[in-house]
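SEVERITY: medium
COMPONENT: batch folding queue
REPORTER: lab tech (J.R.)

DESCRIPTION
The queue accepted two submissions in a row. Attaching both inputs and their returned structure tokens so the on-call engineer can compare them side by side.

ATTACHMENT 1
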Amino acid sequence: MYKKIRDAVHIDAFGMLFLMSAYLLYEEIVFHLSAFGMSNFNAVHNLLAFSIGWGAICTVFSCMSLNPVINRRIHHTVAALIALIFLVEYFVYMQFKMFYDLRTIANGAMDVLGGFSTQILRLVFSLSGILHLVLFALPAIADFLLIREIEPARFGRREVSAVSAFAALITLIVNMSIETTPAQKVLLTDQYSFTSAIRHFGLVSGLCIDAGNILYEHGSDFETITEEEPVEEIAKTYELAVMNIDFEALASAGTPQQAAIDEYVSTLTPSYTNDMTGLFKDMNLIFITAEAFSKELIDPQRTPALYRMASKGITFTDYYQPASAGTTGGEYQNIFGCLPMYGGASMKMTEDEDNRITISSQLNELGYNGWAFHNNDYMYYDRHITHNNLGFSNGFMGYGNGMEEYVQRKWPESDLEMIEGTLDLYLDQEPFDVYYMTVSGHNPYSNWLSEKHISRIPETGHTKEVRNYLAANLELEDAVGLLIRRLEEAGIADRTVIVLTADHFPYGLDFNAAFDQTVNLADLYGYQPSSYLERDHNALLIWSGCLEQMEHVEVSDPVSSLDILPTLCNLFGMEWDSRLLPGRDVFSHKDPLVFTVNYEWKTDLGMLVNDTFYPSAENIPEGYADTITAIVRNKIKYCSDVLQYSYFTHVFQDQ
């Protein structure tokens, strides 16, 4: 029976068009529902239109030969590649809760395959993974089994030309529809992000748009926005936070793209110094980027050291850590104060640049002894290159170039062992500047660290996965407790600052869930996140022994990781230029603004999420949401151009 059916299946050019369009639409719908869930399923019309267009283009490739065997092989190859693309991006999203753009794939794919092969295999061979393997592969399998040959007589010049014309017509109609719909057009131009492109136009279109952005530079101009001047009293009392930079001279010495950035930066209103300026001048700095940290980890009984930092240091009640590009993207935000607009490639793009903008480089110029540490593979994400170019005088140490002396090779490696082993390297080397990238909080959470600490977590109140997450992170708690204790024993806690924040939210809690179905994350948070901002709320801890002797400082404005660098520059009394950073010194007069790569934002007057503005105050100024959105577009463009056009190198080497 099967042979009779198979032998009966012949297909002409327009049959092929229908088949390829149906394949693509099916894959897009399954992918969209799996990644975003039903709550975000509002782009079916775009998925249909683009599936027809790309289906027509795929058909043209399958109709180019008069040899039916060759056409059949091309057709089967295209069908298999479509399934493979969707499968790869699906499993990447399930593991990291982000999509891999082409730059990230090119720069980080081998690291991911090497470092997370166990977790990925766990995903693939889980019940959900096997189900999605079948779902995504089903069209390609059916296609291979049923289609015996493609009739050469049907694929003459006329048929191929007709399909090509149809492909061009569909593409034209879709483009015209987008061009005449401002809310969609802006997603391809001024408000483009890879995730938004996938969400609104589908995965295949998102990848093609991303490829076009790589091959063709079409960046828009910065928008002209009139900024409010600070009140006169501030200008009289405090100094401008600027450097002696001649932007006009810089513009004449740089490329046209750099000159455009110079012009934009020169129009910005700088911030002023304030009562907190220089509070930490000449003090030691220890900066910890904690793997998958979350605000919910902090508890007065369970994590007394972290709670002490949060309650007796500078308290931030509304902090966000945008999850833009995994761990390396979170590090980039914390260190450079910019969003990683080139995904996982962002940090790597700094390896040959002048990085004097970083706090470590600024402290290094003042004679600080600097170290950067990581307790996993020292070559992962090319940290042995990037982190040796951040200004640490003693360079970077990871497992494989020194850390193995202190840390056991057990996944995930111990934060306690790393900090305990490295403390004696710098405690008597004041002033010092130390950076830690931890790993004990990494998923999966059924590991030796969760087993080590699980008895310290109550058996009720959370899911098993959340209990394991809380237990595993007690290794970080113990490390921080040891760090503070050793600083106090050495008598230098009052002149040492510890900064701790996350790289991203704990995406590993729900390794196979859609955006709106993260059961374990909802259990940890106490609510199901419905937007990126809700998902990315987190904690920023800035503590020093000296703060415990002062009146408590609390920052209730919205704050994000982009604000860390300018705030530290102010607190350490650096000579810095507030116009060069898209974040703000949180103690300055500048209005608070948190924003993500998906163009969601939050201020003290409201927030824009899922394309809707929600005011949080009365008497919102007319056009306020549009003005803030334009400011966000400028800032995100700046974050992109800084990397693409080596802007910081241009500023610090050409002035």
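ATTACHMENT 2
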Amino acid sequence: MVFVVSLGACDPNFILDLPVAEAAGRLEAGDIDFILNADPRRIDELRRLHPSALFYAGLLVQSREAGGVMGDKPGGIGLSALLFESALESPSPKVQDAAAAELLKAVLEGEDGVLAERLLPGLRKKRAVFAGAPFLEELYGAALYALGRFDELSALYQDREPPSLRGRSLFLLASLRRGENTRRELLDFFLSEPLRDPHHWAFREIEKFPPAFSNSEAAAVAGRFSVSRFFYDAGLQHFRIPLAEGPRLFFEYPELLSDLGKAFQYTAAGKEGIKLFLEWDDLITAGKAGLAGGDTGDIRFRLWYYGGRIQRQGEQYGEAARSFARALPFAPTPLQRDACIWYILRINLDENPAGMIPLLGAYVPRWHSDVYFADILDLLSRELLVKRQWDSFLEVFSLIRGGTDGATRAKYAYIIGRAVMEGYIPAVKAGAARDYFRIAMEEKGAPWYYRALSASYLGEKLPPIPKKVPAPVPGDRVDFFRDFFTYGAGTYAFLYLRPVMEELTIPELRLLAETFAKAGRWGESIRISAHYMSRDDYEPDLWDLELAYPRPFSRLIEESARKEGLSPEILYGLIRTESAFIPDIGSRAGAIGLTQLMPATAMEMAGRIRREGGLEYPDREELDLRDPDINVPLGARYLRYLIDRMGSLMPALLAYNGGMGRIPRWRAAQKDLPEDLFPETIELSETRDYGRKVLSAAAVYGYLYYGMTMEAVIADIFKAGQ
């Protein structure tokens, strides 16, 4: 049934039209516009529908409140704050904690403590549930701090460590306000870890009542915050004060040393930084650094690693590569080890590509994550293909064949298979082309593009993808996110989901992807499904393909494709690649809408359609490219135009991304290569990958919705271009 809550005499818009389940008395679904004024009775009516609705209503109200959570009147409290406060009584711990997180910002930024005073009694009663709700505890601590109840705040953590970074900042600042000597603890807080929001809040607070830092310590803290805001010159000026006293503080706090390296890297003082870092490494080697024993490896790593970055910034490439090589043995984590190797390989790829094979032989066994080096291997494959260095291509493949990056392995295997077919590589040297196509086709982590093309050359079909019955999903963890849509606040759902996706299981994420898709949030649904489909433990499922490759705007897209003589799966693949079906999306370059058209291009296509007796499009000022009914037909016409100009689909797709002027020039330089190998030689990595992405998506759309095999979709495209 539809339950209409009367909100009294007011603007006619102040009405809640809420579908409610009769049995549960709970909101079901619908696009709810919570437009309320600060009348507590209306909050009570909403609470009776369901306490969780108050949190989602608070988000919607907050977005349109002139004065934010605290309202626009001195000493006032905004309606959203009242809604979030009421949501603290929700039976859902997730809703309670999320409401506490919103209130936390207002309490910490408030000047008069009015909101803190209002919240404190209710928070005291909730102390028993703090262990499972970190933001509730932080909100309680923030309320005590805002009201100057520093003794109570210190007592909160008297027998235990604060469980969060925010709690630690509140505890330290409360101790400082109580007159305790917290210099060392605050210095550790500001200098020993990456800076986050609680650090920035605490830094603003200590400016009001500075701790007993020395001049050099205060300057070091200020320098870190300048660098975190990308004010590198200002950061370096701050750092010069502790630098005058030598390396002691930078050696004591390696994070501070990293920020000093960034300041040198992005200012004109790079040579000074290199000289200084070399001197400091000599001090450590000679045992004259003043360090009280312990492992100096982390310090030496940072000296050489940031030294290499400074040298690379200054175009001292050979010296930079040697610095990264010297940093490598001291790298404290696998990620930092990979970073050193990446820089070494990237520099050598630019400066001495002929020497890449021996380097790969040395470093492939030492790196940690194969995927981390996918861009290096992609650039190298282009280099080797352009120069027709087929023996090197075979050597690289032999080095990476046992790795875990299926996409890169499939690319190399497919290219080698085609090179054998075309006679570029003798079969006696490489083996049968079919063996390489088999490797590419069976690589589960590879793009559909390479798998489908390989299957077509083998004369086989890719194995059918099973459609499994979705496993039941416990509702506790997903209900919080699904209720964004239940209560009309779907716009905010992904902001809350994105930081915690790693914590959710594949069935939970699958259910959420479906929820986002049903709400028309196609781009976010695609991101969720792509996220869990990339996990190592993922098994292919047709349900997931349908979520990752949805078919919205079907009538419009199929009709536009038909009018322009395009296959609908191609137009779907292009739109998914360009915009993920987000109608109002825009790029930094100025492209707009589902097919990401530039306004000038759209006007030109509109003119062509008009001159041919088609639809009369409005003038430039009225051409709303965020309207799918306008955007999609114009995008389809533009792709048709490019196909006619370029002669076939793949060059047209490349021109759609890289521009019409470049593709013929690039093609002429590689005219002896077949059409499927030519894209692998394109200079721009985005354009090089674009055609593959569109055709991979098209293959899936043909398979899911148009009764085609994936290999047939892609093979037919290249046959048409021959």
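NOTES FROM REPORTER
The chain has four domains: 2-147, 217-425, 476-540, 554-720.
No errors were logged for either attachment.
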